[in-house]
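User: Structure with 2-acetamido-2-deoxy-beta-D-glucopyranose, tokens only please.
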Amino acid sequence: MFSLWLTCCLPLGTLLLAFWRSAAGNQLSPEQSFIWGPGLRADVVLPARYFYIQAVDTEGKRFTVSPGENAFQVKITAPEEQFTRVGVQILDRKDGSFIVRYRMYASYKSLKIEVQTKDRHVAKSPYILKGPVYHENCDCPQEDGNAWLEEMSCPQAILQIQRDLVHFSTVDPDKIAKEIPQRFGQRQSLCHYTIKDNKVYIKTHGEHVGFRIFMDAILLSLTRKVKMPDVEFFVNLGDWPLEKKKSSQDIHPIFSWCGSNDSKDIVMPTYDLTDSVLETMGRVSLDMMSVQANTGPPWEEKNSTAIWRGRDSRKERLELVKMSRKYPEIIDAAFTNFFFFKHDESLYGPIVKHISFFDFFKYKYQINIDGTVAAYRLPYLLAGNSIVLKQDSIYYEHFYNELQPWKHYIPFKNDLSDLLEKLQWAKDHDEEAKNIAKAGQEFARNNLMGDHIFCYYFKLFQEYSKLQVSDPKVRDGMEKVEQPDDDLFPCSCHRKKVKEEL
Ligand SMILES: *[C@@H]1O[C@H](CO)[C@@H](O)[C@H](O)[C@H]1NC(C)=O
Ligand SMILES: *[C@@H]1O[C@H](CO)[C@@H](O)[C@H](O)[C@H]1NC(C)=O
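Assistant:
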């Protein structure tokens, strides 16, 4: 269970003695500052809703540094209710903008969001969200998938989805239901899902199927929000992509968290990113919002030794640690865990203590190097304001193909042979490096937030479902995946009520 934070307990009336001033010395202007984002709209249901505040001064200039982390106060209430069960956090991005996020533990008829600075309303505050305003656990799907896509402001087309599905001119659920378990079911851990009438059914294959919880969770979350198309598909719970046939003949559609240049698996956002979206302000502390408020010192004050920590899951990681021991002023790389290779302290040094992810951003240069497959920390690294140096790799997550080398990150060779040279380039071109860091951060902010992840999943299943040439079926041995029923504050869904009355 997560704890409930009630708005009554947050320090809202913080007494402010200082005048917030912009870099130019001007005062923060409540009228000129602006507020925007999906969290101001009732129909965008997210586990943690969010919106942005940009501080602007009385001259109309945007703040580019923080006006102070307590510059704004936010109060969220349900006017009709005595208590509003909502947790609110204001995250200072230190660039003049803030993320306000809130997690609702109950649904409300309407919601009032007040944003103030020194007792004056900011921008168009108060914002009234005419409801119903549903919380994450409310089972109240929008019947019209395309209307939902519009409400969520999802992109028209997602290139990676098109790239992945181009290998499949049609999908025959009857055929894959038989053939995929025969081909992979013995040695691999797979989940066979059918979504029918917006209910989720599953049959697992293989021994290690614990990771199904992430897939179950996102599918249930989606079906609470939107009516999913009837669809039947297989999810690979293992690390490595599976469909390695060279020709496109007789290949099978397999959904995986990681894609590779030498396979034809259909990629989805990783379980790690998915889980962090679902559990934002809940079980997880590292997510795409929290990371934005913890990006360490400003660029100029960051330590210019490159940093890396991780486990020994790939031999290039051993190489990197060896390099670090040879050039400790240039690279600080060390293992926090030994598991895959023989632990040789004389070569790879002692195991070091874990450092908090946010502490990575004390360093200017972040090295991203594959683990077993792609290193799933890349979304968070990009969201910081350090520059990412990324190893060339056959492995990719759902968004890598949209990233551009030299624009969003600095590439280095798979065998690390040019890593020192690339680090030197970054040091010699500090201004350019800073801009690449900024572009990478911008990419993460605009493409990897919770709403983008929901869009990706829905679009993917929608596009895939159109390829089906027979009806998805609830197969023998499938069990229904039930919605969680431990919700403290059940909602009443207006869409369901209308139906019952008819
Ligand atoms: C920068 O980091 C390195 C490696 O972690 C450390 O040895 C060095 O003292 C740090 N430099 C400064 C100026 O703090
Ligand atoms: C994998 O494919 C991408 C995109 O085509 C390419 O840029 C990259 O160099 C390839 N990596 C390897 C190691 O083959």
